[in-house]
Amino acid sequence: MVSMTLSAEQRDSAVQELNEYLDELANKEIADPSDDLISSLVNRITAGELTRTEAAQLGVLLLVGGHETTANMIVLGTLALFEHPEQLATLRHA
């Protein structure tokens, strides 16, 4: 969805698929609520605080933001271990 190598049509398709997936999750949470983030968003829809579109957009932001930061931290952590081989050795023996 955020790839710079995809065409506009491919990105639009990815966005549509993600929105459909999030809508499906919302339907499942409405039918069988649990104590998680999706349920919290669904509760805000039910209370009239958010529209389904707004909740889906928030879900996308959380998903993309969580993915990017996690992926970046894995790369930075790996780089730090390569720059400090003594720490890498400690980790390997732990």
Automatic annotation (TrEMBL):
Tell me which family the UniProt entry assigns to this protein: Belongs to the cytochrome P450 family.
Q: Which organism is it from?
A: Tamaricihabitans halophyticus
Molecular function terms, GO-annotated:
heme binding; iron ion binding; monooxygenase activity; oxidoreductase activity, acting on paired donors, with incorporation or reduction of molecular oxygen
Protein name per Swiss-Prot or TrEMBL: Cytochrome P450
List, alphabetically, the PANTHER family matched: P450, PUTATIVE (EUROFUNG)-RELATED
